[in-house]
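[job 0412] stage=complex_fold ligand=N-(aminocarbonyl)-beta-alanine status=START
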Amino acid sequence: RIDGQRLWRRLMALAQIGATPAGGNRRLALTELDGQGRDLVTQWARELGCSIRVDAIGNIFMRRAGRLDLPAVMTGSHIDTQPTGGKFDGNFGVLSGIEVLSTLHQAGVVTDRPLEVAIWTNEEGSRFVPVMMGSGVYCGAFTLASALAAVDLDGISVATALDAIGYAGSDHIETPACYFEAHIEQGPVLEAHDKVIGVVEAALGQRWYTVTVKGMEAHAGPTPMAMRRDALLCSARLIAEVNAIALANAPNGRGTVGWIENYPNSRNVIPGQVRFSVDLRAADETTLGGMDAALRAACARAAADAHLAIDVEQVVYFPAQAFDATLIASVRQASDSLGLSWMPAVSGAGHDAVYVARVAPTAMIFVPCKDGISHNEIESAEPEHLEAGCNVLLRAMLAAARA
Amino acid sequence: RIDGQRLWRRLMALAQIGATPAGGNRRLALTELDGQGRDLVTQWARELGCSIRVDAIGNIFMRRAGRLDLPAVMTGSHIDTQPTGGKFDGNFGVLSGIEVLSTLHQAGVVTDRPLEVAIWTNEEGSRFVPVMMGSGVYCGAFTLASALAAVDLDGISVATALDAIGYAGSDHIETPACYFEAHIEQGPVLEAHDKVIGVVEAALGQRWYTVTVKGMEAHAGPTPMAMRRDALLCSARLIAEVNAIALANAPNGRGTVGWIENYPNSRNVIPGQVRFSVDLRAADETTLGGMDAALRAACARAAADAHLAIDVEQVVYFPAQAFDATLIASVRQASDSLGLSWMPAVSGAGHDAVYVARVAPTAMIFVPCKDGISHNEIESAEPEHLEAGCNVLLRAMLAAARA
Ligand SMILES: NC(=O)NCCC(=O)O
Ligand SMILES: NC(=O)NCCC(=O)O
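[job 0412] stage=complex_fold status=DONE, emitting structure tokens
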């Protein structure tokens, strides 16, 4: 059994780096704070005798040697956060891995296979797009070069930011034997069903876009309503359409506009250009494809109606991903053997596990979070639930580590 | 007759200060560039033997003495611009005044009454709210203290910014005998009717607001559509409502959302808080009052429907303003005597003249601008039209300057 208090202490220690007054975490990918978080976690791993490797996109791999020279059993997640993020999203998965290693270290257990804990770079996708960047590169979802060239809103590239915090590595990391990821659910289902463990069977597919609406700046007073080409008004209508598209694809269809940039953004100027993000999600390819078509049709209609130019650029795409049946069964068994209540779950969020599942058998373990709220400074989780999830991870990893 | 080429040369020289690559002007109120513009124009006035005075809100008054110690005939406008503004909005009115003084100086004419050219502070209202700040303080529409305390988005106050550019004065300026303001129309009506001069009879009333929508940040993936309290989606619906309110009050009703701020503005976070501006305009108090009520009702409905808190704060208000019948007639006569085509006009924009009309007889002279486009870097006007408008100003001022 893992030490739930040690796990909690480490979660709270990591949460000090980029702590916000509202009790959350702001540790954007590849900032100085992210660097400090990486330093802290790798320090803990070193104290357990782990070797540390870093690859070219800055993913960190902390390895505890096994008896045999076989592919490792890997776990991990991310420690970057949203601009107004919480203390558990990502951090729980990484520190659960470290806790598993600490428990084995203390008990003097040596596994057949090596165990490896990964910190994936820029999972959140809020400073740099695409989301799940480090695991995406590792699994070949897109190229290293394209990821290194991505820039934030200030024009700083991933390559530059990695250099600045000293995490531009060059290690080549073999494909693991299998991969587990523990994570808070980030949704309300476990809580609603009063279950402690979500046995994750699949994750929703996602398509993200940058939509650019080009209108015509003009004076908010003398310009007659009929003569306007108002880029913000047109965008507002499209934001409502994105919501309608999601509702038309219930129960799993999701549609969100989280980011918007208005130009020139002056009170008495009719906006001339607006850029905004669209995030569409669905449980299967047919539905997600239909939502994509509906978005493009809505934009084409809006452009024609309002005499504006609208550009729709897809910036993230991955299909819904099923996890490995054998590993799923192993998570279920671990939960049962620990006497924990569980239910099957579908992940509404993307996770590094979604990309790793392309190269190795993968499964995820969810624990509840308060009111289903995540990507919010008030994100909260019960110590007992976190401890339970980590115990499930320990058993599932031990089972997989047998040669 | 004024010298149209000199007027044009000065317009182009002033437009060098804060020139943008797209051919426009970015000289926000009380920035260093605004200071440079003020220095340039006052230098020209000094060369004409004018005395220069500056009041506590930074309005500049450039006076050419008359034969008699009577209240002055005043003209003026502003030289601050929109973030993506043009070369003529405001600048034309100020430099027309300087051109009138230059013409009289050259001809050795001394008028009975003094003539005075004003540069009003922060007319545009895009760096600091309220709009028409300098003339508003001068005419008692709001207090000096409240204006000095207004801050920009970086938290810099008007008082600090005035100090920084050396235009925090202390002169007391008497009420003028009357006030004229020449300005580009900023709308399409004169061009559509092929007229050179707009004899402005009134200006639309305005109400501006800051609307704050408070929802709940949550994850764009796992959060079911029905559980969301999306501040941006709610704001998008309100932006469409603002447009509908204006259309329902045709032909003079105007409604614009020019500014929006989304929080935390991350692609995969359901927005938790949005602030946006609303700018409503109408030709009479009843209509404007009805639009205000419609906006507040729409916000109350939206708050109830979407389980969000919405705050509506009015930040600018002035009723529609009629100009002085005698001065209007004088502008008409001047146009006729110069053989210029003219038509009556209503100003859709606010102008410093709208506030000055509260304390002194006031009239305005419009000239066409290309395609009716203003508050845009491509704002453009014909040299002949500008010259014609300035000649009308000269005649109207000379007539008013007789004791
Ligand atoms: N788990 C998580 O918050 N991932 C971010 C990617 C997403 O938006 O699904
Ligand atoms: N003339 C002008 O552009 N004034 C700005 C104030 C307004 O928005 O009406």
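Chain B touches chain A through 72 residues (CB under 8 Å).
[job 0412] exit 0
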